[in-house]
Here is the input.
Amino acid sequence: MELLQVKELEKHYDRFTLDRVSFSLEPGYIMGFIGRNGAGKTTTIKAMLNLIHRDGGEVTVNGRSYSEHENECKKDIGFVLGEFDCYRKSTLRKITEVTRRFYDSWDEAAYADCLRRFALDESKRVSELSAGMRVKYALALALSHDAKLLILDEPTSGLDPVSRDDLLELFRSLIEDGTRSILFSTHIISDLEKCADYVTYIKGGKILESTDIVSFREGYRLVSGETAQLETARERLIGFKAHAFGFTGLIRTQDAARFADCRIAPADLESIMIYTEQEDGHEQAAV
Amino acid sequence: MNKLLYKECKLCLVPQIPLFFVFALMMLIPNYPCLVAAFFTCNSIFYSFSQALVDNDLLFSTLLPVSKADVVRGKLRFVVLIQLATLAVYVPVIFLRHAISPAGNAAGVDACFTLLAGALVLFALFNALFLPHFYRAPHRVGRHFLIVTLAIFGWIAVFEGFMIVCGAARDSLPFFAWVETHLDCFPATRDAWLAQLAALAAGAAIYAGANAWTRRRTIRAFEEQDL
Here is the structure.
């Protein structure tokens, strides 16, 4: 059974629409939720959690409708919306003392284990923690009430590369037992290469693709050619950059046969996103 | 619900709240409009809401396994707890004032149980005007408080002004004389006690009724709010 299922989620603003967003996640996996800034990642997460009103759609967590069983679903979810930025003058001990009362399944031993594992000092105030430690504290709270689904919105965006790598390894270890899953929104694509099993790509409020990371990468190829070849190739290119010696662009793998005269290479996630974000195959300014 | 009240007390109790209870001692100042002391409690609650905004309290609370309606109910209980604690602090100060200075108050109501009724109406007014607006547009908290402050001082002017008029015109109307000897004094007779307890009961009824209305309206405002 899917741990998370999002079906046809809609939210309409004057200048932005979340357009029938759908994806699902099984236990034991990490899904990267990617898109550029303003693509709708945070809006999707907030609409999923009823933090903003949906105009349509359905979310189920562990088989239960989120709308109908919101409190029960929340007990199954651990939230990290950015870094933990609440009650900055309060100590971790005080915040934990409050939080534990809301969860019947609170496991004191698991919490103590998290404190040790993440080197968290309960006597410190939130304001005294680094951005990475705040994310770890939010994770400690989530893991102590045995959350099965961790929803992390841009958890690594304020971290240095070493802290990011440290956190990504932690994410992998958290899903090892096959009971938990992580939905992890980010615009830092290199993070996904390191830890995600699935990718859901949102652009302008619409899901472009939601699939496993290998299939996602295999669906695209990078193509390079000379300037003379660009005119004939242009209509098949998803996006491209022209330079003094020719061009480099992104194509669908099924179109690769049409580019027999060009150099074809596997595409990485970052290239896929950069070229896809070029509107309708328009050329991006050459560097 | 008690968990939410506990959360409020642990994480949203700013130092101004217990500190401003000291303003009850303003009742000891000769010829001072005693009801103004209750405004300082509203002021401390405003500080708590402002700090809650900085602390992302609304988001933290909403992500707990409780409904948005329960978040509002928890906050309202916290506010009521502070306001009732304020009144509890007033009671010994009323007796103290009578013991050290039994003379009447030329600036308005005497330190007595009618004052508690006036304070309950003031708190009801604060809750009804401040809470729904805060949950509808939290980031305009300062503007809401300014409007509420004007309304509160309007009530203080009406309440204290009425007592001054009753004192000054006691000989012109029997009703004014009755107010002066039953409601605007430390209760020394059985009739004065009964009159002041009846006033307190009326204040409590207004407070309870207004809070029920405030709760419904605030819940609706918060339900409509996108976080």
